[in-house]
Amino acid sequence: MTELLEDLVDELPEELFEGLNQGIIIREQAKQHAQAIPGRPLYIMGEYVRNKLGKQIIIYYGSFERIYGGRSKAELKDRLRETLRHEFRHHWEYLAGERELEYLDDEFLRKYIFGTDR
Q: Which of 74, 88, 114, 118 has its C-alpha lying 20 to 30 A from 22's C-alpha?
């Protein structure tokens, strides 16, 4: 996973990393959303985090294993690319004072909770 992530990071222009002072890290854990419904797992693949120390993107390796374990390396790389770009979009929208992706994520969560995501 680390090698795939490094390859994907190398594809991105340096300007995207502006203000991302804590960089991108991989955590081994699988992370479920706090509002996950029993019997309907909702794994968090990545997360854009802002705190007193700065800004970072976290990729949850365990979540990828749970969802995409056994898939081809190419498919895993595609899913990782989607997640990385999603989190970078959160970063850039935050810097621009925008929240469109937050609203889209909220809508996805509402559909999941009410069972209309299927």
A: 74
Range of the domain at 108: 2-113
Closest CA to 46 of 67, 71, 73: 67
31-73: pLDDT as tens digits: 999 999 999 999 999 999 999 999 999 999 999 999 999 999 9
CATH number, domain with residue 62: 3.30.2010.20
- Count how many domains the chain has: 1
